[in-house]
């Protein structure tokens, strides 16, 4: 909940500033957050810290987000800086039937204009939903099932390093958008779908000869997810109409959440189905 709320808020907020580097910084920050989080988990588990202890150490994160949002960010010129009591007094003093009608009409017109812009977002919405559907299906369902017995790392350690590898690749591509740009957004869901299919077969048959081969596919998964996230938001910031930009970026963030939620719904039964297959099912 907090992730979805804060991401939508920050994306809409960033889109109001005329500085493309803010979008690049936001993309880099999301990649760095995933990388540091996964490394922090690996670091603490190496000292036999329990999961509850690890998550307890991260409770300071919402506080830091609040401090950064309310204390560090610049206010928009359009933001109301009037003291709260005075604002309420002015509001109730000036409120009239005509003002209510005018404000409602303006809101309705803006909403209609935003909705009319949705067809322009169609390719972005579809790409984001399917990329993150496949991506989080891999993360939530397949990583746990791809296990190499004759390897130095335990099952839980292999799972942790899948997460680290995924976040390393996502961070790398989100940080290099200035240097590498791919315009064809349809490329991402297709490649991520192929990746999910290969890893699904691997989870069932365990045909890969070594742990490092699985890491390659996980690294590729992170590349596709990172490129999708950074490319689409940067493209929207650069090409969307200025008045529609906050709506566009917030709506794409919602599409991302839809893809992740669908992946969660898909991952649970898929995980149970794969686990229910007998070992000699395909022999």
Automatic annotation (TrEMBL):
Superkingdom of origin: Eukaryota
Protein's cellular compartments: Endomembrane system; Lysosome membrane
Segments passing through the bilayer: 22-42, 54-72, 117-138, 185-208, 214-236, 248-268
Example GO biological process: lysosome organization
Record's GO cellular component terms: endomembrane system; lysosomal membrane
Keywords: Lysosome, Membrane, Transmembrane, Transmembrane helix, Transport
Pfam family, one: CLN3
This protein's record includes keyword Ubl conjugation: no
Family: Belongs to the battenin family.
Protein known as: Battenin
Recorded topology in the membrane: Multi-pass membrane protein
Principal subcellular localization: membrane
InterPro entries membership: Battenin_disease_Cln3, MFS_trans_sf
């Amino acid at each position: 909940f907090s992730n979805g709320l804060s991401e939508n808020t920050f994306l809409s907020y960033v889109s109001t500033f005329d500085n493309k580097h803010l979008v690049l910084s936001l993309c880099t920050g999301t990649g760095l957050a995933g990388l540091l989080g996964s490394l922090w988990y690996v670091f603490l588990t190496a000292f036999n810290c329990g999961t509850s202890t690890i998550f307890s150490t991260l409770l300071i994160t919402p506080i830091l987000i609040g401090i950064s949002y309310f204390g560090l960010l610049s206010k928009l010129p359009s933001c109301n800086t009037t003291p709260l009591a005075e604002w309420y007094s002015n509001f109730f003093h000036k409120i009239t039937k005509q003002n209510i009608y005018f404000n409602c009409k303006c809101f309705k017109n803006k909403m209609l204009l935003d909705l009319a812009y949705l067809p322009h977002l169609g390719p972005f919405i579809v790409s984001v939903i399917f990329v993150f559907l496949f991506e989080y299906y891999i993360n939530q369902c397949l990583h746990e099932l791809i296990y190499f017995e004759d390897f130095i790392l335990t099952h839980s350690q292999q799972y942790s390093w899948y997460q680290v590898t995924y976040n390393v690749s996502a961070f790398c591509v989100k940080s290099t958008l200035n240097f590498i740009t791919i315009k064809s957004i349809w490329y991402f869901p297709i490649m991520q779908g192929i990746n999910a299919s290969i890893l699904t077969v691997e989870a069932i048959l365990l045909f890969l000869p070594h742990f490092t081969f699985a890491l390659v596919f996980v690294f590729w998964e992170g590349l596709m997810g990172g490129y999708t996230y950074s490319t689409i938001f940067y493209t929207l910031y650069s090409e969307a109409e200025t008045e529609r930009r906050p709506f566009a970026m917030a709506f794409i963030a919602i599409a991302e959440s839809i893809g992740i939620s669908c992946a969660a719904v898909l991952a649970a039964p898929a995980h149970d189905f794969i686990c229910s297959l007998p070992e000699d099912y395909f022999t």
